[in-house]
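hey team, just a heads up i'm posting the complex here instead of the shared drive bc the drive is being weird again. everything in one block, sequence lines first with there labels, then the predicted structure for the whole assembly after. its two chains so it's a bit long, scroll down
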Amino acid sequence: TQLLEQSPQFLSIQEGENLTVYCNSSSVFSSLQWYRQEPGEGPVLLVTVVTGGEVKKLKRLTFQFGDARKDSSLHITAAQPGDTGLYLCAHNTGNQFYFGTGTSLTVIP
Amino acid sequence: DAGVIQSPRHEVTEMGQEVTLRCKPISGHNSLFWYRQTMMRGLELLIYFNNNVPIDDSGMPEDRFSAKMPNASFSTLKIQPSEPRDSAVYFCASRRTSGSYEQYFGPGTRLTVT
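-- predicted structure starts here --
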């Protein structure tokens, strides 16, 4: 198992603030995925990053894959209560998917 | 198109009882996954199937756990006998093996074993 460590584990911020969460490993990956899981539901894929240094944007969310393809970050601009959830990074080898420990985000109105 | 369907959504049972969780994958998806999520261990892959055949069950914790996929539209995860430490949320997910890596998760079954 190639461990994915996410930080911070918990984050509580006010609406309108910016935040960054991290996904780190000592291993090199061909790609990384980011998921958001809302309470009482399953994870939903947000984005897949595949190229070292790649930056992808999804509205107010910006995802970056590290140059060495060992880490990734997710930056949220002007957070909204709807962003509340558990953010998971994951990698896969074929059909074997490994998930990080997750960052639980709460955005307070 | 309906997503992945799981039943029941909640299950409360006593230690020693048999528990069966059910999953209907998205039509046309030929890979199916069973995951377990706990606060302590996060989201863990238990087993996955390709074209109804179990490929890797190395994540299944013990012999008390078994999974079947009798056809392309149905899978079960059975725990017999159940123990309190099995309490968790169990997710089923499916995907097409080729093309996008995206997995589609069901809403999960919250299992509580007392």
